[in-house]
């Protein structure tokens, strides 16, 4: 039923900086605000090595424009680094950059706490002998691409006039399996009860990695007066891939795309029949928002 997004998703709990090509492998991928351990060494002749009393700087950075975040400014927040041994780091002992010394240990252990933004990131380890880089990603590994053109028309992206500035409609439709099946069967129930309608219009689900659904590249949204705060996830119910929007009868965007809008209350009822939570499934006037999970993620 689903085309699973292919990613390297093994979460490695202890990784040493190594001198490798600076690329985007997206491994490991860690969920937002999950903490894991990394270790930084000094460089000797281009390779990491145990060196005592070696000063190094460790910092986290985003790979811009990943996970359909199509703007670099305002800069996205990145993962926070926490020095394990406070005596090895200058105050403050945590942040996007920590200034450390291998001291009598010979290396610097530290924790990485994933940001709330689903994106590719990298850690830079810089010392007097040069720098090494390790890349990883923040996001959820259980999201699947969810599109059924035999019953759904995609809307909400740049090619349909959605104006949300997260790219085409291919970017905004990732869901967990349970939620995707619920939406699929709710659609068939609605079509069965409304003869003559063949295609509904599905809009926001989640971005490929999940995480904040930031739209602050849209003109005027993040300038004075501020409509949305940058990286504040105005689509917070779509951060986990457990909710979807389906256009209502008043949606001209749906009509223009060749689909039929739903009677919102009736479609929400169909979603609830197939596993959605009534209290998290909302009649938002021009669309039905079906929530198939209790919002418990850190967004």
Q: How would you sum up this structure, described in words?
A:
With 299 residues, the protein is mainly β. Helix content is 11%, strand content 28%. The protein is built from 3 helices and 20 strands. It has helices at residues 177-193, 252-257, 264-273, and strands at residues 3-4, 14-16, 29-30, 35-40, 42-44, 47-49, 55-62, 80-83, 94-95, 97-101, 108-113, 119-127, 130-138, 144-145, 152-154, 174-175, 200-202, 243-247, 282-283, 287-291. The strands form 6 sheets. It has a 5-stranded mixed β-sheet, with no helix packed on it. A 5-stranded mixed β-sheet has the order 3-13-12-7-10, with no helix packed on it. Strands 1-14-16 form a 3-stranded antiparallel β-sheet. Helix 1 packs across helix 3 (264-273). The longest helix has 17 residues, at 177-193.
Distance between the termini: 28 Å
**What does the main sheet amount to?**
5 strands, mixed
Query: Structural class of the secondary structure composition?
Result: mainly beta
Secondary-structure element string: EEEEEEEEEEEEEEEEHEEHHEE
Q: Segments where pLDDT lies below 50 for 5+ residues? A: 1-25
Average pLDDT number: 86
Helix content: 10-25%
Strand portion: 25-35%
Shape verdict:
elongated
Over all CA atoms, what is the radius of gyration?
22 Å
The total of beta strands comes to: 20
Q: What topology, given as strand order, has the largest sheet?
A: 2-4-11-8-9
Number of helical regions: 3
